[in-house]
Structure formats: C-alpha cells, structure tokens
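Protein: Sn-glycerol-3-phosphate ABC transporter ATP-binding protein UgpC
Species: Variovorax robiniae
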Amino acid sequence: MAEVLLSSVQKRFGSVNVIHGLDLHIPDGEFVALVGPSGCGKSTLLRMIAGLENVTQGSIRIGGRDVTDLDPKDRDIAMVFQNYALYPHMTVAVNMGFSLEHRGRPKAEIAERVRWAAEILGLSQLLDRYPRQLSGGQRQRVAMGRAIVRDPQVFLFDEPLSNLDAKLRILMRGEIKGLHQRLKTTTVYVTHDQVEAMTMADRIVVLNAGRVEQVGTPLELFDRPANQFVAGFIGSPA
Ligand code: ADP
Ligand code: MG
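Structure follows.
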C-alpha cells in the first residue's frame, strides 16, 4: 500500500496538451475511480502513473518516493488492461507466476504466491488449465491474478471490464471491490461507466479535456455536483 501524489502533471503529445497541470492526492489504501468522456486523458494519466508514458512536466510520487523518471518495472505497480492478453501456451499457474519468474524470484516463492493469489480469486482448481479452457470471467480473474501475485503498492485498472457482457461485468465489479476490501491496495480505476464508478469507488475524479472538474465521494458528486458537466456526467445513464 502507498499513497499516490501527482503534482502539476502535464502531458503534451507534440503541440497538443492532453493533461493540463493536474494535482491529485490519493491516500494510502483508497480506491479512486477516474471517469470522463472518451479522449479526456484517463488512459494517458494512468499510463504516466505506470511509467508507460513519460511526464512532460510535473512529478509523480508513489509511497513518498519520486518515481517520475523511473521505469515501469521499478515502480511497484501492477496494471490490468481492457485487452489483457494471457499467454495461450502457458497454464494458469505459469501465466500468473510469469512476472515473478521474469524478475528472477525463486521457484518456491513463485509457487507460494501463485497459490495465495489463486485462493483469493477462486482459481485454485484451475491452475493447470490453459486459457482456451477458461470462461471469460475466469480469464479476467487470471489477468487480475497476474497483477496481485507481486503484491504491488498500487493497482492500476484501465477499463478492465469493458469487454465483458453486462452480467459478468456486474459480477466482476463485486469481485474487484471485494479484492480491494481484502488487500486494501491503493487503486486507480479508469472507467467511462459512471455506474461502475459510483458503486465501486471511495472517491471519484471527474476528468474533462485533461482537467479535473471535481473530486469527491460518490455521494458528494451526486448531491453536490460542482458544475453542469459533472451533473450531466454522473446523472446520465451508462
Ligand atoms: P481516454 O483514455 O480518456 O479515452 P486517452 O488518454 O487515451 O483518453 O487520450 C487522450 C488524448 O490524447 C486523445 O485526444 C488522444 O487522441 C491523445 N493521445 C493519446 N495517446 C496519444 C499518442 N501516443 N500520441 C498522440 N496523441 C495521443
Ligand atoms: Mg482510455
């Protein structure tokens, strides 16, 4: 667990300003949803926290450490994407342990971490299966398993449920929320689905064209939207 601190973070692609001097403090253990319309900069912001995109100006601290110029692998974060790709020729167990193996961890430790993650995610009986032998929900759980085996300081999710059907999406919302309640890992969860944000997050950050419109609990945003944009965004159906 660790707090995440963004100070005057700016991102330009060429001459286009995508994120405008953004300040954000995410306390230790909090689940924050980052919402806003398509193209407002959610993924770019998340990718900067992950280190997959460099910061044009400003700084990012995780757990008190300035990580602005660090490689993704040195940041102690784990990211779950929308288009998570499992390795088709590897079993569930090998898929889940891969990042630890890649980091040269001892075999016994990897096996122990994989067992632990599998138990949390209800995958214990499926460790020897191959991805093609799994349902969509099970595959999504394996993708989460890959993220949690390392017990990172921060989880970053980029619309992880948007490829699932409506029923499974609702089920997985509950699972991710349950995982957070159990592990209390600081989480930044990007979604364009306001219902998802309202039901899952401790606090919601509403982003519009690279600027923060409002930060607050779901209730605060619902009861006292700061402006018409927030009201429209929170109030409209997904
Ligand atoms: P969101 O995730 O909220 O839909 P993005 O962060 O993906 O938005 O994109 C924000 C803006 O930045 C968009 O206008 C997008 O076209 C632009 N953008 C994203 N990545 C790049 C890139 N690598 N090069 C140029 N422009 C980009
Ligand atoms: Mg995006």
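Remarks: Residues 13, 18, 36, 38-44 surround adenosine-5'-diphosphate (ligand 1) (CB under 6 Å).
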